[in-house]
Amino acid sequence: MGCKKPTPKASFSYRILPGQYHATCVCYNYSKDADEYEWILTEPDGSKRISNEFEPEFYCNIQGTYQLTLTASNKNTSDWATESFYVYYEGGGNGGGNDGGNDGGNDDPNPTASGYTITWLRLEKIPMLDENDDSWDTGLFGSGNPDIKFQIQNSSNSQTYYTSPVKEDVSTSDFPITWYNVNTTLEMGAEYRIRFLDQDGALDPDDIMANCVWKQSGYFSPGATSYTWYSSDIKFTVGLSWIYNKSDINKILTPGISDDKLMDGDNTPISAQ
Fold first, then answer.
1. ∠ CA(18), CA(22), CA(24), 5° rounding?
2. DSSP strand E in the chain: where?
């Protein structure tokens, strides 16, 4: 009679480490009798990130409540454990610190953000024909409508911070089109480019449909939750999440759970101390 492999027991803890433009959630895995692991980090906007590493790290660049779930599995069955935590940047705005100064916070009702996150992008208008009034999609596999993606790059186009999924075969009747879960954090005052491309699958390289200069300090202020960029032939709106840091300290007010809090793999949520 064969021996049955033990039932796995999911167990983990984590720490939240501060950073200049994001916090880092460092995971510690104490699971037993498991061969495979799936970590799911649910962000404040509902988007999810998944890792199958034994002890992954996740960037947290949106202020709010996160949920971290570990599923530990073997060939017989699986077990899970979950915990929630709050990433809370000090310095005002939605980040708190407005408690009379007891925690060294900033009571300024109009604080200056040190960074910001583009959380989503909605494209409302873009040239549907190239400079020769021809369809963007030409070539061997081309069709009449472009397959649109966008990129966020530094000002020289030498580094790409984000490339979106492709929206295929877009016609004028499809607008507006929206990309969610962009979640790209940028520096205040630095110049970037947001460029829209036709990825047509043909033999020619990507066609640049629009190339927009993006610099936060030039034309919008902390406090807004979205901003619309437009010219005569293009219009798009981005969702914004601001990051506030004091100049002398980068402090996450919720430190997370100490390493020994979840040693038993209990599924019951534990409040951060």
1. 60
2. 12-17, 23-29, 36-42, 48-51, 57-60, 64-73, 78-87, 115-125, 148-154, 160-163, 177-179, 184-187, 191-198, 207-215, 226-230, 235-243
What phi and psi values does residue 198 have, to the nearest 5 degrees? -95, 115
| Bridge partner list, 211 | 195
Both structure tokens of 169: 């075969």
Q: Which residues, in sequence order, are CB contacts of 17 under 8 Å at separation 6+?
A: 23, 24, 25, 26, 252
Residue 195: strand pairing partners: 151, 211
pTM, whole model, 2 decimals?
A: 0.51
CA nearest 39: which of 25, 28, 24, 49?
Answer: 49
Encoded tokens for 163:
């490339």
Which 3 state secondary structure label does DSSP give 123?
Answer: strand
N-term to C-term CA, the chain: 48
Q: CA 213, CA 154: separation in Å to the nearest integer?
A: 10
Q: What is the pLDDT of residues 240-258, one digit of tens each?
A: 887 765 332 233 322 333 2
Over range 21-46, report the average pLDDT: 89
10 Å CB burial of residue 181 (0-12, 13-18, 19+) is: middle
With tokens 């020769």, the residue in question is 132
Cα–Cα distances (Å) from 75 to 4, 78, 91, 173, in that order, read 10, 8, 48, 49
102: CB partners within 8 A, 6+ apart: none
Task: Tell me the per-residue pLDDT of 180-196, one tens digit each, with 9 for 90 and over.
Answer: 989 888 887 888 999 99
Q: Report how far residue 170's alpha carbon sits from residue 4's, in angstroms, rounded to the nearest whole number.
A: 54
Q: What is the pLDDT of residues 47-73, one digit of tens each?
A: 899 999 999 999 887 777 888 999 999
